[in-house]
């Protein structure tokens, strides 16, 4: 697979690993993300400010008063040749989701009809899917979760909604997302989680999920959803509450 370096203004460049969305390409993105983090912790790659992973590329921000792309690119190319292992943060989380209220699952019946399976089976397949966060984008905290069970693969809605409620859990193509805020959206709504994807009350840890995280959903009732939502109104959830213990 070829790798391209592209300028993004005078303070960043992009390292692109391909033109398609695929697990192996995203794994290479995350491997470089982790390798650069390790180099910075060791006091190398002076001038790198931040790296931002996406589905198929890594954006590298740098301080133009300290370094240049010409200086950084050979060092990053050496990391690629070295085949660095993934060292970026990676967690396994289980998020609660309510599928049992028509207000939350606005597209459940339509998804069932279009896929030719029952509504209950749609829910079962979503719960059985093991998702990986490919990137966070579009709006603060919105995670793109790859790994949706194949029978649920559908294109986006022909007519996007003007308003999708915050914390809605939705699917399209081979992915699922959780909307952090109310916004327009064209994905199929299957449920809602009481867990906010972006909560400024947590300070520097405002974003709930990070690229590389593995996510599954746990089914909850409307009563449990309401109780958890009331709890979240009083104080922000500690994200570690939803992180599975290491085996």
Q: How big a fraction of the residues is strand?
A: 25-35%
What series of H and E elements makes up the topology? EEHEEHEHHEEEEEEEEH
Computed structural class? alpha+beta
How many strand units? 13
Radius of gyration: 19 Å
Strand order of the largest sheet: 5-13-6-7-10-9-12
Q: What is the CATH top level name of the largest domain?
A: Mainly Beta
The protein's oligomeric status is: single chain
Distance between the termini: 34 Å
Explain this structure.
The chain has 247 residues and is α+β, with helices and mostly antiparallel strands. The protein has two domains: 79 residues, 2-Layer Sandwich (Gyrase A, domain 2), CATH 3.30.1360; 151 residues, Cyclophilin-like (Cyclophilin). The protein is 26% helix and 27% strand. It has a seven-stranded mixed beta sheet. Strands 1-2-4-3 form a four-stranded antiparallel beta sheet, with helices on one face. A hairpin with a 2-residue loop joins β9 and β10. The longest helix has 19 residues. The protein starts with a strand and ends in a 13-residue tail after the last helix. The mean pLDDT is 93.
